[in-house]
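Quick start: read one record
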Amino acid sequence: MEHLEFIDKLNEFGIQIRSTKIENNTQTIEIPHPFRIESDFVDIKTFECKYRKEPLFSGQTALQAIISEAIDIDSWKHSIHNEISPENYDKFREIIQNKIIKRASEIEMLLTVYFQLNHEISNINQI
């Protein structure tokens, strides 16, 4: 889906997205490894992705590593079934959008239950 459609879908849940990243600051994404204790780290600054230090076993670029990490959240591992290449970027964007929308729905439900619990606790304390 196009970016504005995605934003409209999030607005239906009352969720607005904005970057909390301060311009020119570095954002770091941890890339854990299932068979190693040590993780790799990718630093992103002004849309440039770089490994903090060269990974020991990864054949992926830093950009490929963060895409894999994002699309593999949850149980289905999309990176196993799709090559991490520019030809698939639209597909990966849609996968990530769907994950964000799913979590927006979950956040909405959690907030509803949270505020209901606060209401119930308030009623108990008034007795």
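Helices lie at 3-12, 62-71, 78-81, 89-126.
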